[in-house]
Amino acid sequence: MYDLHRLGWNSFQQLCLTIAREVLGQTTQSFLDSNDAGRDGAFAGQWEPAPGQSLCGNFVIQCKFSSKAGYLLSVSDIAGELPKVSKLAAGGLCAVYVLMTNAGVSGKQEASIRSALLGSGARHVLIYGSTWIEEQIRENTRLRMLVPRLYGLGDLSQILDERAYAQARAVLESLREDLAKVVITDSYRKAVSALDEHGFVLLIGEPAAGKTTIASMLAMAAADKWKSSVLKLADPGKVVERWNVDEPSQFFWIDDAFGVTQYESPLVHGWNHSLAQVRAMLRKGAKIVMTSRDYIYNRARQDLKESAFPLLGESQVVIDVHDLSEIERQQILYNHLKLGRQPASFREAAEPHLEYVAAHARFIPETARRIADPLFTKELYLSEYHLGQFVEKREQLLLEVIQGLDASSKAALGLIYMRKDSLDSPVVLEGSEPEALGRLGSTLGECIAALGALNGSLVAHMQTEDRNVWRFKHPTIGDAYAATLAFSPDLLGIFLIGSSTQNLISQVTCGNVGVEKAVVVPKSLFPSMSARLREFSASDNYKTGWMSSWGARRAIYLFLASRCSKEFLALYIEQDPDILTRVSKPGLSLSVVAEVDLAVRLHGFGLLPEANRKEFVEAVSGYAIDGRDMHALRDTGIRSVFTDKEFDDFVERVRTDLLPNLDQVRMNAQSEHQSDVPPDEHMQDVLESLNTLGRYFSDDHGAVKAIERETRLANQWIDETEPPEPKVGPRALGAVEPSEERRGTRSIFDDIADDGDCAA
């Protein structure tokens, strides 16, 4: 059931010690691997391995690992241990000898091995072979969580609960290959702790730091231990949409929650809009894991309502690849190479240099994956210097790999990039994509063939949100493809032709405005980009006509507000002057209204005429004065559009006209509540407004008292109106103990090229 022969000697030894602790209930002392005197582990005391069987004294644990599938242990495999057993027994250190092996042990051989060990001085002998070890793994969910590689080395349909497996089969099966290579790190332990404590965890780190790997380990553990249905989503705003109130064990996984390679503000706005429901979901037992690149999250923080959802800070795990220990780096490299596509000859030639590679300052988990794939090492000379360059210049070498591909393979990558890293399968071309493929020197058939050839190396076929899609194997490959566009104006022109406007506006900037990883459209292509934007009138994100139209307009405004230079904006206004009138009259919910961002941007560039500026100031002031939206008081961007005198007058009117009538604002909001909307969600804007007023008028004792009273009454109304919540029992994965420290001199890579007999 489990391919334990693929673990490697070190991982198998760690598995045995974990079994001793978790299953046998014994905390063992591990010994030096190169000078263990016949002991991989030991403990002392009394132990009942089975009902009616009591053993006491000094126990010895010895692990025998075979990298050969189906290997049968024989007396000759332990011959070298017998003199060590005699010595241990003579010193009173071997009352009970426990032999653990992933090899099979026949009845006849077990009797022979037992006799040999007893004859060498052990008083009692216990032999646990592959059948017994697999039985412990099968019956112990916590053991599997502590050694998550097991999920990738077994049949998930047999490991997981039938219902949990059926609900998330495609997602979980797509993880299997990568799970076979995972390593327990300190970041994983912190993530488990955060998920247990809060039900929510945000994993942050640089590209290729291992965020998705940790999220996949949590997802598999949740499906296994809690029988959770696992939903992997691309948009954090869709969490609420997919929530089933009658299924408290749902596990939501949102990879790259705020953008894959660049910050995407619509994703943040969707999340902000769902915060009240998300809090309710967590209270009722749902679990949520989100990941984000560090630079994207740092940009997203400017727009995220962290005060309304403190868990973004409290349940945040920052993954720093520089914090990986020596043994973790080596085990990551070992697992990828051992289970990768490289032949034994490559592994054998590389073995002397692997500790150096793992210790390199620029080593990251993605480095291990590339070394294990022949596509990335075709031209690599296996010496310490050249392997060091492979690690040091990882971005440049990836770029060279992409540039060295044939035309159809490049076109296949381009098609995925044009679809924003989500190419539906089976592949059907849309819009101008046939023309773009033709200019790239390929056809749909050739592209599909190339995707198949690249699968597992540069691209991956997977299921997400109930769709089969082609994606980049890792987002860094999308980064590298974007770099090829920057080097080739002709290729960029083809990309602009083939991409839909909806995808394009989240990948490019018009002029260099400092958006990291974005493709910069040069001035010569401004007119065609402007025309594309003005033609964009319907968004695919919405089904109804008016929402589709609204979504397209909002997307354009956000693009203009955050991704365009002054020169491009001036050109766009010249061609669409009516946009000035539209941004001057923003609607309510100013924190998410795109017209606000664009008005602020235009004003900053001196492109917002005075009449339009005054109209904007009057609109946002009015919303605050009548108590409907306080965003103008707290937003520094909106404040910049006011003159000093206008803002002082505005604040005074809030003091004189709004503060005396706060009770009416609260009661009006309560009276408008509809039964199908959660009370806390309905009152979220009111509470945020009161919080803003409290901070702004903190020096006014009378105002503070009135604000505190209304806040208390609003929360009291929520408590009284909130329907009783179902009782949900606590669900926790449990603490993950640190791995045994490496204290020996035997290299982890000692058996990297071995496909044969017992080794340890």
Automatic annotation (TrEMBL):
Residues 715-760 are annotated as: Disordered. Pfam families: nSTAND3. Residues 751-760 have a biased composition (Acidic residues). Residues 183-338 form the Novel STAND NTPase domain. InterPro entries: nSTAND3 (IPR049050), P-loop_NTPase (IPR027417). This is Novel STAND NTPase 3 domain-containing protein. It comes from Pseudoduganella dura.
